[in-house]
Each structure stands twice: as C-alpha cells, then as structure tokens.
Design goal:
It comes from Algoriphagus locisalis. This protein is mostly beta strands. It is built from eight helices and 56 strands. It folds into four domains: 117 residues, no CATH class; 109 residues, Sandwich (Immunoglobulin-like); 109 residues, Ferric Hydroxamate Uptake Protein, Chain A, domain 1 (Beta Complex); 557 residues, Maltoporin, Chain A (Beta Barrel).
C-alpha cells in the first residue's frame, strides 16, 4: 500500500487552519481522476463534518486524517441522499474561506489566504503550482541563496523496512546522497523547485517534483520492481559503495545476495557467505567460526543487532546461528572498525535483524530434508507496534540411521533456535525495541557422550531523536552461553560444563554538524562471569572425582569518540579514539618462581580475591583512522590504521571451535592481546558501476597472542596459567576482488594471498618456547584462497548459482620418526609445530531456484531450491591423524556430494 500525504503549514503558526491528509491506494477512488464523485448514502441535517467524513470513509476507500483541536466539529453539513458529497463539502468549506485544491490524484484542503503566505519576492505568483510540486518546509527562508536541509527515510512500501544504500538525487545535478543503516538521509539543497529521483536496486524508481522552501522532511516509499531482470542488480548495495565507502575494510552483504549462494542441506548461512569474500576463510567443513586476515575465530566480535554472540553456528558449523528470514543485512569490518566497536583484535561482524511488517500479518518459512523454519510477523498496532517471531529446528537423525558405520547410526544430533522481536514507535522521537534469542544444540556420539550448547540472549533498545541532527541509542543486553559434555557410561558417567555470562549497557550518541560532518560518541560497560569448568560425577558408582575450577569475573568499560567528515569533494576522513578499561575481579592465581619455567613445581604463592576485588587492571588506548581519496568519480584510494585490544581469550588446542573450548579472562598472569593493523587499497568502478575491482593490502601485528605449551592440559586445569604462553602474531596479505553488479550474469571473483605467523620467544626457558622461538605458521595459515561466485538469471522464475572455492591446505604437525622401546610398540617423534600441510582444498557447489508463478494475486509465494554441495565429491581432508605405529590416515568430514531440496514460502 502506498501512503501519500500533503501537509500545509502556515507562515507564522504551526497548524493554524484545517489540514487534511489523504491516504490512497493504487485503486483509490481518485487514483485516475479527481473528477470522480462520491454520493451521500443518507440525508444529513446540521451534521458535524467529522461524522460525515467517517461515513464517507466507510462507503469508499477515501481516508481523512485530522486533529480534534482543529475545531472541524463546528462545520455543519446539510445534504440529501444521492447528492455529490464532495461538492457539498467543498461548498461548505468555501463559506469558511476554504477550498479544495487538486494535487495530482489527491485532494488537499487549504485556506486561500494562508496560501498567500508562501509567496515571496524570489518567486512569481504561479510558482506554487500544487498540481505539479510538493512543498517542503514552511515560511520564508532567511536567505534563498543558502542551503537548507531535506531529511527523511526511504522504505519498502510493502514490508515497511528501511532501505539501506538507497539513493536520492537531484535530476540534472551532481547533488545526491544515499541512506544510512536506518534508511535515513540528509540532503543539503538551495531553496527552489527540483525534480528528485529516488532509486534502489530491485525497486521501481520514483520521480518526485518538490518545491523546497525551508528545511523539512520528505519520506519516500518504493515498490518492488516489475521490469526486466537486466534492469536491476541482485544486491542492495549502493552500486558505487566500494569506491565511495569512507571506512576501509568494510563489507555489507544484503540478504538477497546471501540467499543466492548454494547451500548445504538447503539452509542459508550468512557466515558461509562471508567466507566467499577476500580476507575471510574457515579451517574446513564441519567447523564453527571463521578467520579474518590471519586471526583465529575467537578474535572476531560477532553480534546480532549489536549484542555479542559467543556461538555463531549449529551442529559443529554445518548450520549458521542466524535465521536468514530475519536478516536485513550482514556487515563485517575486516579491521577494527570505527571507534564504537572494541574488544576483539581481528574483525567485527554485525548481523542486523529487520523489524516486523507494520501493515499486515505475514507468514514465511522453509521445509528441507533435515531442517525447517517458520516466521510470523505483523502489527500489534498498525504503524506503531510490530512483532516478529521465528523458529528453526533440525532433524538429521533419520540420515544418521542410514549410515553403515555403527558409530554414526548410533549417534543423534539436532538443534533449535527461536527469535522474538517487538518494535514500538512511541512517537516521532522515540522508538523502543526488545528482542530475544534462544538456541539449543545437542550431539550424542555412539550413545555414550553427548555435547550440548545453549545460548540465551535478550536485548532492549531505546532510540531517541533530540532533533534531526542529534540522536541517541541506549542498549541493555543480557547473554548466557553454556557448553556441556555428558558421558553416560556406567563406570565413568559425568557432566562437564563451562560457559560465559555477561550483562552489557551502552549509550551511543550521533550528532550531525553538517551534511558532510558527523560525530559519534558514547560509553559502554560489560560485566563478565566466567565458568572455567565444572566436572561432576554422574553417580556413586563412577570412578571420577568432582572438580571445580574457580569462577572469574571482570568488568570491561570504554568511552569513544568517532569523527567522520568530508574534507573536500575528493577527500574524506573517519578517525576516532577508544579508551577501554578492564578490571579482572576475583579468582585464584598463582605466583611463579621467575627463575624456573612455569609449572606446578614452580608455584611460590597462591593469591585469592573476592568476587568484587580487583586482581588486575588494564587500560587500552585504541586510535583508529581511515582516509579516502577520490582519484576520479569512479575510483578511490583508501588508507587506514586501527589499534584494538582484546581482554578475553578463547582457549583451544584445536584448529576449530569445539565443545571443549571456553573463554578465559585476562588477569594476574594472562595479559590482553593488542593488535595494530595497516591497510591500503585501490578501488575502481567502470561502465556505470557495472563492474568493480579492488586490490587491498594489509599488515597486522598482534602482541600477547595466546597459545599452549607442548603437551599442555587445557581442560579442568587449575593451574592453566602455567600451560599458556603469550607471544607475537604477524599477518599480512593482498586481497583482490572483481565483481559484476548487473545483468543476467552477476557475481564475483575473489583471491587472497596471505600469511599468518606466530612466534613465542619471550621466555628464557626452552619449555616456554615453540619451534625454538622462530616464526611458524598458525593453524589457519592458508597462503592461497580463491572464491568464484556466479548467479545466472535464466528467466524471471528460474536461476542458477555456482560457488567454487580453493585454498592451500592448513598446517599440521606430523611424526617424522619413530622407535620401539621395550613393550611399547612405537614412540613417535613429531616435527616442529605446523611444519607440514594437509593437501589443498577445493570444492564446487551448484544450486537451482524455481520461483512460483508470476501472478500477483496468489495464496502462496514460493520457490523450490535444489542444491548440490561438493558436486564432484572431493574428499577434502580436514586433518591427517596417525596411529600409534605412525601410520597416517586422512579425515574427510564431507567426502561425497550432498544434494538437497527445500521449499521456501511466503503467505
């Protein structure tokens, strides 16, 4: 439904006289001509005008909006059944000095004397032609030669969702802007008459004639495009964003792009889509997390609507933690990002969820071979309060039962997650949002060991607009992530649990100093409670003993200031400073003899702190800057520097995130990691943004990265500090991207050459060095990484998608010799850490999408998606393992092609 309104404000008073807002559908009575009439359906004698207007609304599609304080109840209507109702009302209004002025297909009621107030010396009497122009602003501009500000929001007319990156341009002029993440824009313009063109990929462009008098608001709604496919792109990105974007290393993937990629078992995964971008990779199939520019998975700040998510996947990484039906877009900063982000040294990923439909109830979902999902959304109060409720579940057990391996057909797996979001517009200055997320994963291996992950997340946001230039957003978050391992063997049944609980509060401000200058600033505080491990015997018959690792607590706070401004028509700068403070609270720590390697034998003292006592305090200064220079209107050079601090560490002795990994606080013996990243990049678009190409290089140095000693014990280690070491991380690389944005064939080719190295040589003791203190390849070091993504629109209903990935095999440690000793069959001597590699990785995925018929009036809008993951059945090795005798065998998580079919629908 398209909502069109026209409001007149008099010169001296905000609303001195009657103003009618007329709401129309495309089939509105006056949709084709204002000459059409409405007849009275009864006789009226001295009837107040509001009663008559309500009756007209009930018998037609016309809608009238007015305020009671305008006093229209004093206007009394006299009319007979069958008479022209609008003509009668027009004659009545004339007696009070009002008239009806036609404006396109609208009827706007104004006072003729009030209309004179808009005429002033710069324009002649015919300038205010209401049949052609929409007025913006009121009164008379102080100086018609100085710019005023046009603001507003651009939205999807059907879904009522903000459109990110939509453009609003002044025709026959170079002036124009794009909308921000909330769909808002701000355009500086000289008072006068203009034709504005509003465009967004995949939507019908809209031309609007305006007469700008003073600063004012213009909201625009766009409809989905029904033209030929060649005339719009598949992405929701502004087509020149790679060139115009001010912040280096930032990428935004719209949900339409994410859905176009081939899927595993029919489930769309935003995280997997990011891996096709240069600089982003994963260790392999069946792994959680992702790696960005040489960092490990625990160095990525993953957020949903601004709240931290500690587990970004389901079922060991085969499924993503985010329901694609909810997602508005996925935003990633491959550096530290602007100063409002902090706490991780590798990247920032924010999955932005959309609000519910404010116009009507929508139901959508999907049914697949091993998972299904359902979403319901709609208004609780139209144009005021919306809700969104979704759920997903997986049921792979029927597939496991078909396996021949007894370890597999006796296993069981599954997950579910639930999202709920409610958005309430209090008034034009205040919006309140609450959202929650619950998830539960379980995997039971061969009927004896069960792995369970659980996430609980709640987010409350309040957005307040002090003015069109000054905004505030307050957010409160509660998050709880727990991981459990349960063994049900009679002689050794136990329950092991670990987790992290946090509460966060933050306030962010944004102030527009001008159309080309914006300042963001704010404060945040994050409280942590770390469960480092609890081991509880399951029964009295077990031989296991109870073990409890003391909890740790911490408070991480920060203030920041971020300044973004356009220096000139070519140069822009985004810079800022973040100051963070970390307080390690409570816990038990050991003092070690500095003349001996850290171990249980070198402990000299035990220090215990209460839950509110400060065991250690850290302060971090984190400057950031990103400079963009427009070499030409279609090419740019970007240079950036980021410093970030990370105070919590993901403890792992595996290449990928697993149930036995857990988060640990910096504290008495463990220091925070500090990273400095430098980037430089060239970006070029040509053929009217049809193609874009970019080359970006980076260098990152990380201090105090965490690793473990050889033969370290990670789980249930009360003296874990003795087995952890800290050293230097070094990563560098070049990223190349070629993208085609429009046409039947779209997609991109990405290639990255990179290295990720580590060195641990700070200790004087050989036991606390790795590989003799020399640099060695990190677990996720993959020098060559290539991705090819292609989407071909065969017709309006049928599309084909291809994804090809190639990468260097990841590093591993292997035995280089062996010997026999007495009754021991073999003793293996291993190489230095990560000196060898598994074979190279490559995989091809295909998918085919068939949409339902093109009739607009259909009960279900659906599509069938058929996909094949790993088309040619490549047995890509996840790792290579060795028997006690030193015999090698290769583990392939997915060693064959995996076809799937799913049906997605929307009611």
């Amino acid at each position: 439904m398209a909502f069109l309104c026209f409001i007149y404000y008099m010169k001296e008073k905000p609303l001195p006289l009657l103003v009618f807002l007329v709401l129309l559908q495309t089939t509105f009575l006056f949709g084709q001509s204002v000459e059409k009439t409405v007849k009275f359906d009864q006789n009226y004698v001295e009837t107040p005008l509001p009663i008559v207007l309500e009756a007209i609304e009930n018998q037609s599609e016309i809608r009238f909006f007015y305020k009671e304080e305008w006093g229209i109840e004093a206007f009394l209507v006299n009319g007979k059944k069958g008479e022209d109702a609008l003509e009668t009302i027009k004659n009545l209004l004339n007696t009070y000095g009002f008239s009806i002025v036609p404006y396109r297909d609208l009827l706007v009621l104004v006072n003729q004397e009030g209309l004179e107030a808009y005429r002033y010396e710069q324009w002649d009497e015919d300038d205010l032609n209401l049949k052609e122009y929409q007025l913006i602003g009121t009164g008379k501009p102080e100086n018609s030669n100085l710019p005023v500000t046009l603001t507003g929001q651009i939205k999807d007319a059907g879904e009522n969702e903000a459109l990110i990156g939509a453009s609003i341009q002044v025709v026959d002029s170079s002036e124009g802007v794009v909308t921000d993440l909330d769909g808002n824009y701000e355009l500086s313009i000289i008072p006068g008459k203009y034709k504005l063109l509003v465009q967004y990929a995949g939507y019908e462009p809209k031309s609007i004639d305006v007469q700008v008098i003073n600063s004012g608001e213009l909201n625009v709604e766009l409809f989905n495009e029904t033209l030929k496919l060649e005339e719009f792109t598949i992405t929701a990105r502004s087509q020149d964003v790679s060139v115009s974007e001010k912040i280096a290393g930032r990428e935004i993937l719209d949900i339409a792009v994410i859905r176009s990629l081939p899927t595993f078992m029919g489930e769309v995964d935003p995280i997997k889509s990011l891996i096709s971008l240069p600089g982003v990779s994963s260790v392999g199939e069946g792994t959680s997390g992702f790696n960005v520019r040489g960092g490990d998975p625990g160095q990525n700040l993953v957020m949903m609507d601004g709240a931290i998510v500690y587990n970004s996947s389901h079922l060991f990484g085969f499924f993503g933690a985010f329901n694609s039906d909810l997602i508005r877009d996925v935003e990633i900063y491959k550096g530290g990002g602007p100063a409002n982000y902090g706490g991780r040294v590798s990247s920032v990923l924010n999955v932005n969820l959309r609000n519910g439909n404010s116009q009507g109830i929508d139901v959508q979902g999907g049914i697949g071979l091993i998972s299904s999902r359902l979403l319901v959304e709609g208004p609780l109060k139209k144009d005021k309060t919306t809700f969104l409720l979704s759920g997903r579940t997986a049921y792979p057990n029927w597939m496991l039962k078909q396996m021949k391996d007894p370890d597999l057909y006796q296993s069981a797996a599954g997950f579910y997650d639930v999202n709920f979001k409610i958005n309430h517009i209090i008034d034009d200055k205040n919006v309140l949002t609450f959202s929650s997320y619950l998830s539960d994963d379980n995997f039971e291996f061969a009927s004896d060991t069960a792995y369970v992950w659980k996430t609980k997340l709640g987010i409350l946001k309040w957005a307040h607009r002090f003015s069109n230039k000054f905004l505030m957003q307050t957010q409160v978050v509660a998050s709880d992530f727990q991981s459990d391992i349960r063994n049900t063997q009679e002689s050794y049944d136990f329950d092991y649990s670990s987790g992290i609980l946090n509460y966060q509060g933050k306030v962010d401000f944004s102030y527009e100093l001008g159309t080309a200058h914006k300042v963001d600033f704010g404060v945040s505080s994050l409280y942590y409670a770390f469960n480092n491990g609890d081991f509880n015997p399951g029964s009295e018959n077990t031989t296991a003993e109870e073990i409890h690792i003391p909890e740790e607590y911490a408070l991480e706070s920060a203030i920041y200031l971020n300044d973004e401004f356009v220096i000139s028509s070519k140069a822009s700068l985004v810079y800022g400073i973040r100051v963070s403070n970390y307080l390690a609270l409570g816990g038990s720590y050991y003092d070690f003899d500095p003349n001996r390697p850290r171990s249980n034998a070198s402990v000299t003292d035990t220090l215990s702190f209460g839950s509110s006592e400060v065991a250690k305090s850290y302060i971090g200064f984190e400057p950031r800057a990103s400079f963009r220079w427009l070499v030409t209107p279609s090419s740019s050079l970007k240079v950036s520097y980021y410093r970030t601090n990370q105070y919590i560490h993901l403890i792992s002795n595996t290449a990928a995130i697993s149930p036995v990994n857990y988060w640990k606080s910096s504290g008495y013996n463990l220091s925070p990691s500090i990273a400095d990243q430098y980037t430089v990049g060239l970006f070029k678009n040509w053929k009217d943004n049809l193609f874009e190409i970019s080359v970006e290089g980076y260098y990152k140095n990380t201090q105090q990265v965490v690793d473990y000693k050889n033969a370290a014990s990670i789980l249930l280690n009360e003296n874990l500090d003795a087995d952890l070491i800290q050293g230097e991380g070094r990563a560098y690389g070049v990223e190349f991207l070629l993208r085609k944005n429009r046409g039947k064939l779209t997609g991109w080719l990405g290639y990255t050459y990179s290295r990720s190295l580590r060195r641990f040589d700070e200790s004087p003791f050989e036991e606390e060095k790795i590989n003799g203190g020399s640099f060695f390849a990190a677990n996720y070091d993959k020098p060559h990484d290539l991705s090819l993504v292609m989407n071909y629109k065969v017709s309006r209903r049928f599309a084909m998608n291809l994804n090809f990935a190639y990468s260097t095999g990841r590093p591993i440690t292997v035995p280089v010799s062996k010997f026999q000793y007495e009754d021991i069959l073999s003793v293996l001597n291993f190489s230095d850490r990560n000196q060898y590699r598994v074979p190279d990785y490559h995989r091809l995925d295909l998918s085919f999408t068939l949409k339902s018929g093109l009739k607009k009036e259909k009960a279900i809008d659906g599509e069938w998606v058929f996909s094949v993951y790993n088309v040619y059945g490549r047995k890509n090795p996840f790792s290579v393992y060795f028997t006690q005798r030193g015999n090698a065998f290769q583990l392939s998580v997915l060693g064959s092609a995996f076809p799937s079919i799913s049906y997605n629908f929307k009611l």
